[in-house]
Structures are given as C-alpha cells and as structure tokens.
Specification:
53% helix, 290 residues, 13% strand, 9 strands, 3-stranded mixed beta sheet
C-alpha cells in the first residue's frame, strides 16, 4: 500500500498509473502537480487524483512515492527542485523513455537520495495525451523496464517493481545503456521515420492529391506520427547518439534495397520481403503466446 503518491505530470502515463493503482486498492491518497491547471482540474473531476498542489515542496512532503511523468527535457529542472524537499523515506521514480540521461540528472541533483531513486520505463502509450486519455488498464500485460543503479536500496527497487506489478504490468530489469539501445531501434527510430514520411508528403506541391489517395497502409505506417511532438523531440535528443547509429543502419538497408531496384533484382527483393514477413509473423505469434 502506498499511503501518499505524488504524480508530477498527470497525463496519459501518470494518469493511467493513478487509475490502475486506485483500481488495485494499492494507494490511499494521490496528489497531482503539472503545468496545466485545466488538465489537473480534469484529472480531479475524473477521480484520477484526490487533490491538486501547486507548490512542489508542499506536495512531496511525507510522500511515499513521487512519480516524474514529465517530458524528458523537464526531468533535470524537476529533479533540481526536488533535491531540497524530499523526505528521507520517499522513493522517487520516473516513466521516461530514455534512461541514461535521467539517471545522470539524478546523480547530479539527488546525490544524497540516490538509494531511493529508481529509474523505470512503462512500455505503453497512445497517440492521445492529457489526463482525459488516461486508462486504468493501460499497463495490463505490458512490459515495464526498471534500470537499477548500484547505489539503489533493494527495498526501493522492490517497491517500484511491486507498484507496477499491481497495475498488471510485467517488470523486467536491465542496464540503462541496454535499455536506450533497444528502444532506439524498436521505438525511437520508428517514430522518427513516421514523422519524416508525413513531413515529406505534406510539403510536396501535390500534397493534397497524395493524401486524398492514402489508405490503410499509409494510415497504419504513420499512426505514430500523431504522437506528441514535444515529447518525441525530447526523446530523440536525449538518445541522439544511439539513434544516429540506428539511422545509419537503416540507411544502409535502404541503400541495399535501392541497389536491388536499380538492378531489377526481383529475386533479392522478394527474399527481403519474405524474411521480413516471416520475422513479423513470428514476433506477433510470440506476443499472443505470452
């Protein structure tokens, strides 16, 4: 049981965490902070939070758990503000999509509280944002990655793991660099490509005509281009070194396919397409089995 939970940033992820914990009976009081008063009022009306706080020090006083659900670029200033007002027993965690940068900020601003700072990343989301998009079942059956530090108190890591498990999530642990490398390949790069394709089409002279003929394939490929621009700007910049390597690898694959087209090498194209189709089918089958 978490007696007092403070969520800084009551959007899709923070709000869904609050709803899931409330549904599981795992929390007593939920306090919300954020940039938008309107969003916080909506969260309170929807029963996501119990009360709104505007002062950080007052909000986190005697909190059991503080969840940083702010954009990646806001992590550093938020941690800097937290440094002077945390109770010794409070556990701080985050939901950021990159981990090396957040851990670096924690080392910088919470040096005496590192034992109780536990970095985490729930692998769930949607294109919609804000408290009104929150869902109690968002994390059910989804992975949550926890990236412990050597300084962490094992009890704090266990507390955050149990918090996510009570939401129905499957908790995994891995080093921060491994996390950032994995998600650069299977999350950050796909978002970059989706944004890039829509941008390319949108600025062509015949964009209206092209969009008028776009159907299911284009819609499915570009679905994630509907994601929050500020959030994805921050994620891409925070993980830029690994993401640049992934772009280079993907560019090599495009150059390979381009060469096949230039040579009218249908056999090789079909082999690539067939291998990709099989790999995707096996991935989907594995997800269903799990």
């Amino acid at each position: 049981m978490i007696n007092k939970l403070v969520i800084i940033g009551v959007g899709l992820i923070g709000g869904s965490l609050a709803l899931a914990l409330r549904e599981a009976g795992a929390v007593n009081e939920i306090v919300g902070l954020g940039r938008s008063r309107e969003n916080l009022e909506a969260a309170r009306t929807l029963g996501i939070i119990d009360r709104i706080e505007t002062d950080l020090a007052s909000a986190v006083k005697d909190a059991d758990v503080v969840v940083l659900a702010v954009p990646v670029a806001a992590m550093q200033p938020t941690l800097a503000q937290l440094s002077a007002c945390l109770s010794p027993h409070t556990i701080v965690t985050d939901v950021g999509s990159t981990k090396r940068d957040v851990i670096s900020y924690a080392r910088q601003h919470l040096p005496v509280h590192l034992a109780r700072f536990v970095a985490a990343h729930p692998i769930a989301g949607a294109e919609k944002s804000g408290a009104t998009a929150a869902m109690a079942n968002l994390f059910r059956g989804r992975n949550v990655v926890v990236t412990p530090m050597p300084e962490n108190d094992p009890a704090a890591v266990q507390m955050i793991s149990r918090m996510w498990e009570s939401c129905g999530a499957v908790v995994n642990t891995m080093p921060p660099l491994q996390h950032d490398e994995i998600f650069a390949a299977i999350s950050h790069l796909p978002h970059l490509l989706s944004f890039a394709l829509v941008e390319d089409i949108a600025f062509r002279a015949n964009a209206s005509e092209l969009f008028s003929y776009a159907a299911g394939g284009f819609r499915d490929f570009t679905r994630i281009a509907g994601s929050h621009p500020e959030m994805w700007r921050d994620i891409c910049l925070a993980n830029r070194d690994v993401l640049i390597r992934e772009i280079d690898t993907y560019q090599s694959q495009l150059n390979r396919l381009r060469g096949m087209l230039e040579q009218s090498d249908g056999k090789s194209l079909e082999e690539v397409f067939g291998h990709a189709r099989t790999a995707r089918a096996e991935w989907l089958a594995g997800k269903q089995d799990s």
